[in-house]
């Protein structure tokens, strides 16, 4: 059973737009896959993740989770962290964790303790009384990680999970990915920190012109060159910036 | 699961609204209202009682209307803009639970604000030895609940200023309809009376009532319930389809 199957996915930003952001994309995630998605700014990584999760309606194609459609029952097995935290006015870190746990169906008096334990795992226990608006980018990312770790999903979809993280945060993330691989969970994450790919991922793909070009995750040099070529090509043809310079 | 999620969302909505400090503003206005009381002492006791009752409840109603317009027209678009809708949708939360939770939370907050303000007003009347009937005041509350529901219906579809404009337009339309129904009741034109009766039963409108009179009772509550159900149905259907189109 594949944890995630994307078949012929197409997406435009708006109906009047001719160019496709996602152009007939295919992707399959098997248990134990740690998939790193790279790409230039504006290449459509976040759009792809949101389209996969049904936050944006696809123009064409099919997305299957665990060989079935996305239902509420399936959502319990998926952990998603967006590139920015949702803004809840005056909400504290601990309250946010508790809210997320409640929405995943956790009940009872132990919820506060469990939320604190999850925060402790990512080094945010001391910040549990801080407001969400007061968190740094790295702390936000850690909180997102704590949120997905809390209900132990089989499939994780993470948008820029290590952006702004310090060394300790990176180590926590790396350890968590190892655990996911051991427990045969699948992870799909995006990042701009391409130099870490070899240590973090088992598979790597570069999103370019709406399609994924898959590379060998262990061949860091090829990944670097391919990414650089894709970024330059995007600047040249999409924006014309390179030619003007 | 559905009921639990509705409870969570409703509780969250009440907390968010309390954190916006709307209640404190209402208390300040009530203090201002109390400070103005000595200015009316030249009225006869009966006139003063009627005037104060109508003015007091009207004042509470007006500010609740303002709150309804502000929070009702703002909530869902804000959720979309600030990433909260995406947060809820990526959790196992049903769309119905999200929408009803938000609406019920909004109503619960209005009920709280209404209960506190009317309670204070009632205490004032008791101290002064005046009697005001409770049911008309309750109906007044329900009409703001209906207005909130209406604003929730239109909030995902239109911009905030349009929502405020439409909310006020709806308010005046409903008030005009109630005036018309009173006029029609007194007219000898059977066709007009029939038309107004049909329109009045299908479209929500606000009753004209005398807050110190005896005309109120269970009829008001039943009517309010019917209007409430009418708008809740409309709200759920319209918002559900709009959100499906906009955000999946």
Overview of the molecule:
- The complex is a heterodimer of chains A (245) and B (248).
- With 245 residues, chain A is an alpha/beta fold.
- Helices cover 38% and strands 21% of the residues of chain A.
- In chain A, strands 5-6-7-3-8-9 form a six-stranded mixed beta sheet, sandwiched between helices. In chain A, strands 2-1-4 form a three-stranded antiparallel beta sheet, with helices on one face.
- In chain A, helix 3 crosses helix 4 (111-121) and helix 3 (93-103) packs parallel to helix 5 (137-150).
- The radius of gyration of chain A is 18 Å and the shape is globular.
- The model of chain A has no long low-confidence stretch (mean pLDDT 86).
- By secondary structure, chain B is mostly helical.
- Chain B has helices spanning 2-19, 22-35, 45-81, 84-89, 95-128, 134-154, 160-186, 190-202, 218-247.
- Classes of the chains: A alpha/beta (245), B mainly alpha (248).
- The A-B interface holds A 50, 53-57, 72-73, 75-76, 78, 80, 82, 84-90, 99-100, 102-105, 107 and B 1, 4-5, 8, 12, 16, 19-20, 82-84, 86-94, 247-248.
